[in-house]
Amino acid sequence: MTEITRDVVIVGAGAAGLTAANELKKAGLSVAVLEARDRVGGRLWTDTIDGAMLEIGGQWISPDQTALIETVADLGLDTFSRYREGDSVYVGPDGVAHRFTGEMFPVSPETEQVIAEITERLDAMVAEIDPDRPWAHEKAAEWDRISWDAWLRQQTDDDEAVRNLAFATGSAMLTKPTHAMSLLQSLLMAASAGSYSHLVDADFILDKRVVGGLQQVPILLAERLGADVFLNQPVRTIDWSDAGATVISDGMTVHARQVILALAPVLYPRIGFVPPLPRLQHQMHQHISMGFVIKVHAVYDRPFWREQGLSGTAFSPYELSHEAYDNTNHGDERGTLVGFVSDLHADGVFELSADERKERILESLSHYYGPEAKNPVVYYESDWGSEEWTRGAYAASFDLGGLSRYGAHLREPVGPIRFACSDLAGAGYQHVDGAIRMGRLVASQIVDGVRA
């Protein structure tokens, strides 16, 4: 077994861990990054499936994600805008596809008014939330006791309005049933993007992509670290004291003064800590869980929907695939659609055979785009729930009451151990931008501690 000594050992080679490692190395500290998988990137994964390049994990960049934008520029990567020319599609409770332009779904004037009023109310509430300290709001405990769905239904008895308002942070972002997350957790999700309005604006939140795929960010960050990144090294034990730690993986032992856990908090229990983590961490980590969403990739011989004057953008809280977009790669003659099947719907379709699941999902896409959507040349489902070192998607969030009870302790160091990942971020929460921000933050704290 290899045995080495470093100033800092980082567990996890996603955007957070690799950002931290690069910042620490720039400051003159020695590092080792241990990654359980056979690749870097974590929840970023660009792969070629049946000859088609697919973004299996995260992929979009929005204008507020300045840390990610800076990193993309620093790495010399190019971006391109998501295709959005033409009409969007909304399927309402009547099951009919309605074409529309602009941000508002084609609902009745009464429902539109309700959505506008509640959105304004939510924007005002979100403006009071510090995404780094949502638990500090005077109403945090109150807002954390009520579910997102229950709060919305207190505001209106318009079911269509509730479903459309709810799915923006529920199925679409936190990927949990809206009765299973709190109002406060939903407000944090919106605050991390700047406002609730930003979160529901697809042209804002899903603005640009990286030419060649977003996994290039961690790949290039890892290249800068060279031999300091070790793959296929799942960490089994961390033996720690205030003086430092010994981190033991399947193939190596690393002695270090500091440790950064740069992986989703649902994976902390996979590591044995000697001595055990404090009681608070044991309790807190049991109240955090991953959401679950299937990302569906359907590649066609051409982007046929554009011929119909459609942008590819589609929404419906009544459809199996609650949202879908034109995901055609830069310079590709073929057309790609990406759709999402979330929370309870995702559970349900995995009870079916693979063929029946594919048929059901493509049938749902056809409700937006017509019968041609049923016949892709390449079809692939990103199932992060089956990934041993992820166990869900997109990110981790608290159960009812958990954020106000434990949120303030999420980032607290334990001895030499610090925590950094997108699940712990304020701005950029559950996005690559948040991972980069957390990597920078923890690295700066370590550097400041060394220099103090």
From TrEMBL:
Keywords: Oxidoreductase. The keyword Transferase does not apply. FAD binds at residues 35-36, 235. The keyword DNA-binding does not apply. It comes from the Bacteria. Residues 16-446 form the Amine oxidase domain. Substrate binds at residue 340. It holds the Pfam family Amino_oxidase. Its cofactor is FAD. GO terms for molecular function: oxidoreductase activity. Belongs to the flavin monoamine oxidase family. This is Putrescine oxidase. It comes from Microbacterium dextranolyticum.
